[in-house]
Design goal:
Elements: H1 3-21, E1 25-32, E2 35-43, H2 46-62, E3 69-74, E4 81-83
Antiparallel strand pairs: 1-2, 1-3, 2-4
Length: 101
């Protein structure tokens, strides 16, 4: 494992810990077509979440999502994807690393 891999792993562990405390930052993206709310994260800082935001928007635009509205906020989502569309995959629960229990 490289030093960069170790740093990424440590950052992920901190983000999961912050999430358990309700202090993590998340990117929330709402779309009108499909009618969905997506959560991306967790992130340790607001700046980290904002830096990742353009990539998420780009992915959704590539999938032809319409009326994309974004928000970066502290929250603790119970589900990563919530959709009202019948052909969109069902809700995906948030999974936290069990080693941090």
């Amino acid at each position: 494992m490289t030093t960069k891999d170790n740093a990424t792993d440590l950052s992920s562990r901190f983000a999961e810990f912050y999430n358990r405390l309700g202090l993590a930052w998340w990117v929330e993206i709402k779309t009108s077509s499909p009618v969905c709310i997506y959560f991306f994260g967790p992130f340790i800082t607001q700046k980290d979440a904002e830096a990742a935001l353009p990539g998420y928007i780009e992915d959704l635009e590539a999938e032809q999502a319409k009326s994309i509205v974004t928000d970066v906020k502290r929250c603790k989502p119970a589900q990563l994807t919530v959709c009202d569309e019948p052909d969109v995959e069902p809700v995906i629960p948030v999974k936290i690393n069990p080693q941090l229990n």
